[in-house]
Design a protein that fits this description.
9-stranded mixed sheet; UDP N-Acetylglucosamine Acyltransferase, domain 1; mainly beta; 7-stranded parallel sheet
Amino acid sequence: MRTIVPLLSIVLPWKVRRRILNRLPGVDLHPDSRIGLSIVCPRKSLVLEEGARIGHLNVIWKIDRLHLGTESQIGQLNWISAIRTEGTTIFDAYPDRRPELVIEARAGITQRHYLDCSDSVRLEEFGLLGGVRSTVLAHHMNPHTGRQGCAPVRIGRYSLASTNCVLLGGAVLPNHSILGAHSLLIDDPGTSHRLYVGSPARPVKEYPADLAWFRREKIRTF
């Protein structure tokens, strides 16, 4: 039912669709939230706070939880999925993993990105996955064990991951930082107010605390 109802109701007017979805267990859609013509069917929990927006032609499924904070946004043509918790033994060594996407207040994802949320992916307040065609991959092959592993990914407050970036499990983009285009982030460099560039990404420039990007009050992704 958690998949069938969202699919069958996708063509209905949003107000009607919202009322139907809000009747499902674990769904809480604020009256001032909106989902476009997209497949959005997380398995356990769907929460959109006031002003949260999901655009058209997204596919968001197989994750356990999707939570969009106040005025947060997902653009269009994004594919967001996970290896689910039940029915698989792939991640038996990671009993605490959380297949979820959490986008905090006024954070967002633009368009044409791929996110694997087999472990938690979080964008903190005003964080942005920008540009196009970036990949967030929270699971990986562990060469030491010969098995799949996973780790959370986080984009910090007021930080930007630019176009065509790759963020792997365990990656943390520090608060008030920018990940340059075509860069690969594989760990937590730990230092804020930096431009990180390269493969793997390393700090190449320091930013002042009063940089305009770090003082934004609104976010617009679509």
